[in-house]
Structures are given as structure tokens and as C-alpha cells.
Amino acid sequence: MFPGNIVSFDVGGHQLEKDHGTATATGRHRKDDFDHQKAGQPKWLLFLEIFTGAVIVAFLITAIYTAIRKLSPKSLPMVPWKRTTKSRDPIIITIGYRQQLEIACEDFSNIIGTSPDIILYKGIMKDGPEIAVISLTVAEKDWTAFHELHFQSEVADLARLNHENIAKLLGYCKENDPFSRMLIFEYASNGTLYEYLHYGEGCQLYWTRRMKIAIGIARALRHLHNELQPPFIVSDLNSSAIYLTEDFSPKLADIESWKMMLSRSEKSAGYVSNGGAFHCFSDSLERRHTGAQENTFAFGVILLEIVSGRPPYCKDRGSLVNWAVEYLERPDMMCHLVDPELRYFKHDDLRVVCNAVSLCIQSDQSKRPSMQAVCTILENGIDTSAAADLKESPWRGRSSPCHVSCRLSTL
């Protein structure tokens, strides 16, 4: 029995070995065919497959990163600007992204002011303050190296202004696709002083409030002229450059410098770009540090506007200064300068203001006082304390039209 089993085992073993050998031979044959096919495949096709895969992966990664970046809130990068040599701490402003500003300004549809050279938008930053955005209306083809140099110089100059009565520069936007040059300021919600005085809202500016505005502007100019080195001169000081906050605090903003830089006149001694679309005044930078007397005169005009409620020039009455001179020179006639929409005013305050105006509007520039001296006159002569404010409080909330027959009343 055992021999038979041994033979059977041998046969089976031989058969198994034979089957195993057949399978092995078949596998080797298939491997040889695969190697032959692989060897016959062009190398460039293999490289193309690898390159295509890498491009697809890179595209997917880029798409995912872009989507995440759009959906996630971005913080504005902080950029230090150096103060004057007398200050140790740098001023920190931000570089804004156009995309963020577009969202904040509702697709740049929230326009609050325009001119041929700039557009002024209102915006609200996410988890941040309300902002005012000045956008320069200039095409990239008209933007020269000189424009860029002037833009950077103006940003640096504005960055050093730090006073409670001066509109604060929060940041700027500089992008080339699409071409954008924008400035970001804190927003003053009550519009301009000019609008309040001359568009039917003057009755909201009672006497003490007007005096506070006047002193606030004087303090801002004192800071610009006497506390900064080098001094900062406002390009075109007027009541439209004074913005009012929610509590009617004045904020001085120098927007005119950008209009000067991008003036659309072709008559200029300065640089004219191709086609004459934009130019820079050759003396625009020099006027920054030579026009203090002009600012002083302009402040005198603003004081007259605040007291009288009249615009600087009227077609029917002519120049405000020429009209006021007669009353300024006669103390007994000063009361005729007062805005008829005011219920009451303080005669002592009026005398102080008229004295300051007379000094500011002197025809001889060399005789005009510094803004430091003018500010001292106003601060020492006018009472803007809480007690003075309360004296007028009974009339603040009345909805009836402003009384016009009490212009000679005094407190």
C-alpha cells in the first residue's frame, strides 16, 4: 500500500511541479510582454503625462487657496511711516486691498462727493470704523513716474498728521490691476461745515457750538503751522474742507492737493502727460511750506462764515470780506454780522471773533499773526465750557423754525 501511495504522491508531485512550472512560464511571458510594451512607449509621452498631472494638481491647489482667501477675513498689513525727528514713535498706517474697499463701499456705489479728479466714497470696514475713501480718477496710461513720486510724498506727509481736529489717514491702496490709487480716512458723519452753514441747516449750529468749531479749526492750524517740522500748509482752506463728526467736532481734511496734482488743465508750467490729460503744478510742493499767511487769511474768512452764515462770495452781495469790513471797524455795528438764524449770541465772544478776523484778513501778509497767536486769542477770550453750553440747551431741541428777530439779544 505504501509503494502505491508513494507512486501516486510522486505523480501528483510531478504534476504539481509541472503545473507550477507552466504558471511560472506564463507569468514570465506576460511580464516580458509588459516590459516590451513599456520599452516601446515614447519617453516624451511619459514626461507629458507627469507634467499634465503636476499642472492639474497645482491648479487645484491654487483654486482652493484663492477660494479660502476670498472667504476668510483679511487683516490689513501695517506699514510704519517715520514721524519728524522730534518724535520717537513711528506712525502706523495700513495698506488697503481694493477688494476690501470695494466691499466696504458697496461695490463703489456709495458716492458722497465727486470732482473731475477724485471720487469720494463712504464705506464701513468689517468689524471696523466707518471710512471715507478718496479715489483718484486717473488712467494707468496717464500715470507717470512723477505722479507716483508725488503720491508717495503726499501719503508720507499726511501720515505725520496726528491731531484730534485733523482727519486721520488710516491707510492707502496702491494696485495696478485694475489701476487704483486710493486714500483711506476716518469718516465724519455730519458732512462739511459749508453744507451746514449754507444749505439750511445753520439753525443746528447754535452759538456755543459754532465757537467750539472755530476754536477746533484754529487748534488744527496751530498744530500744522507751529507744531510740525516742517510745517504743513493746507492747499485750499475753506469751509468745504472742514468735516463735522457726530458731535460736531471739526476735522480738517486737505483734499485740494489731489485736485491740484491731477488738474485737467493743459495750461501749466509743470509736467504735462501725453495727450495733456493730467499735469502737476510745478509749485504744488513748494506751496506746502510757503502759504501759512494764505491759510491765516482763509481762516479769517471761515470765522466770518461761522458768525454770519453767509458764503465767502455771493452774486448779489459780492465778497463776504468786503461786506464785513464796514461792521468790523465799528464795534457798535458788529451785531449786524451775526447769522439771523441764531436765537442768541454772546456779545463778548463776538468782539473776540471780530478782533481775530481783523488780524487775519489784513492786506499786508507780513502783518498777519501766526495761527498760534490767533488760537490763543480765541481760547483766552471765548468760553466754551459745559456751563456755557448749558445756557443754550433749552433751545436746542425745538423743532420750530429758527427765530430771526433776536439777533441783537445777548447772554
Automatic annotation (TrEMBL):
<dbReference type="GO" id="GO:0012505">
    <property type="term" value="C:endomembrane system"/>
</dbReference>
<dbReference type="GO" id="GO:0005524">
    <property type="term" value="F:ATP binding"/>
</dbReference>
<feature type="transmembrane region" description="Helical">
    <location>
        <begin position="44"/>
        <end position="68"/>
    </location>
</feature>
<keyword id="KW-0472">Membrane</keyword>
<dbReference type="InterPro" id="IPR000719">
    <property type="entry name" value="Prot_kinase_dom"/>
</dbReference>
<dbReference type="GO" id="GO:0004672">
    <property type="term" value="F:protein kinase activity"/>
</dbReference>
<protein>
    <recommendedName>
        <fullName>Protein kinase domain-containing protein</fullName>
    </recommendedName>
</protein>
<keyword id="KW-0812">Transmembrane</keyword>
<keyword id="KW-1133">Transmembrane helix</keyword>
<feature type="domain" description="Protein kinase">
    <location>
        <begin position="106"/>
        <end position="396"/>
    </location>
</feature>
<keyword id="KW-0732">Signal</keyword>
<dbReference type="InterPro" id="IPR001245">
    <property type="entry name" value="Ser-Thr/Tyr_kinase_cat_dom"/>
</dbReference>
<dbReference type="Pfam" id="PF07714">
    <property type="entry name" value="PK_Tyr_Ser-Thr"/>
</dbReference>
<dbReference type="InterPro" id="IPR011009">
    <property type="entry name" value="Kinase-like_dom_sf"/>
</dbReference>
